[in-house]
Design brief:
By secondary structure, the protein is of the alpha/beta class. It has a single domain, classed as Vaccinia Virus protein VP39 (Rossmann fold, 3-Layer(aba) Sandwich), CATH 3.40.50. 28% of the residues lie in helices and 25% in strands. It contains six helices and nine strands, in the order H-H-E-E-H-E-H-E-H-E-E-H-E-E-E. The protein has helices at residues 12-27, 33-41, 74-84, 101-108, 120-132, 168-172, and strands at 63-66, 69-71, 91-95, 112-117, 138-141, 154-159, 174-185, 191-198, 204-212. A seven-stranded mixed β-sheet has the order 5-4-3-6-7-8-9. Strands 1-2 form a two-stranded antiparallel sheet. Strand 3, helix 4 (101-108) and strand 4 form a beta-alpha-beta unit. Helix 1 runs antiparallel to helix 2. It is globular, with a radius of gyration of 16 Å. Bound molecules: S-adenosyl-L-homocysteine (SAH). S-adenosyl-L-homocysteine (SAH) is lined by residues 65, 69-72, 95-96, 98-99, 101-102, 116-119, 122, 143-145, 160-161, 215, 217-218. Residues 65, 69-72, 95-96, 98-99, 101-102, 116-119, 122, 143-145, 160-161, 215, 217-218 line the site of S-adenosyl-L-homocysteine.
Amino acid sequence: MQYYLEHVIDSFKHKGLRKNLIQTLRDKGIEDEQVLTVMNKIPRHFFIDDNAFLHYAYKDEAFPIGASQTISHPFTVAFQSSLLEIKKRDKVLEIGTGSGYQTAVLLELGARVYSIERQRTLFLKTKPLLSKLGYNAKLFYGDGYKGSPSFAPFDKIIVTAGAPYIPDALKDQLAVGGIMVIPVDINETTQVMNRLIKQPDGSFETTEYGEFKFVPLLENKSPKG
Ligand code: SAH
C-alpha cells in the first residue's frame, strides 16, 4: 500500500525511526512477528494530528489526540494486538477508536473491524482519516459499554481504555472460543491487562498480564463531542 496524506509524507527518516521503534518493542519483549511487521508498515505519525508532536511519533510514548484523549503507547498496542492472536477474517470489536491507529493495526492483521468511540470530535476526525488512508472499518459513535449487539458475536474484543469492570454486554457478545483483551482498573490510574477466553459453557478462562496506564472507559454519560 502507498500511504499518502496531504502535507504529511512517509519519508525515509520516518521509516528509519519506525524500524528503531520495532527494535525497541522487541527489546521490551514483543515476539509476535505479524504484529511487528504491520507496525513497521503503518506510519504512526499520520495518526498524530498536532504537528508539534510529529517527531515524537516513533518514541514508545502516548500522545494527545484531542478531546483529552491519547493514542496508546506503541508497546501497549503491540501487547494487546499480540494477546488477541488475530487470524485473517476475524471479526473484531474495538472499544475506543481514538486516533484509529489500533484500528489500522487490526485491519493490517487481516481482521474485519467494528470500532466504537464515544467522543464525537474524535469519531468525526478519525472516520475520514482512516478512509483517506484506504482503511475500511465499521466505525460507530456510541457507548462502548453496550458493545454492538447487532453485529455480535465477535471472534475478538479489544478495549483500549481502562475499565472499572468487565461489561456484561461485551462478555455476551464474545463468540465461544473468542478472546477479549481488556485493561481493568486496580486503582484510579492503573489497570491490569486481562485476557478472557470464552468457554463452551459460557464461562471465562481469565489470565492477567501486567500493569498498564490507560485513559478511563467513561460510563453513564450519553455520548457527546
Ligand atoms: N485505540 C486508540 C486508543 C485511544 S484512548 C488509539 O489507538 O488511538 C481510548 C479511547 O476510548 C478514547 O478515544 C476515548 O474517547 C474512548 N472511550 C472512552 N470511554 C468510552 C466508551 N464508553 N465507549 C467508547 N469509547 C470510549
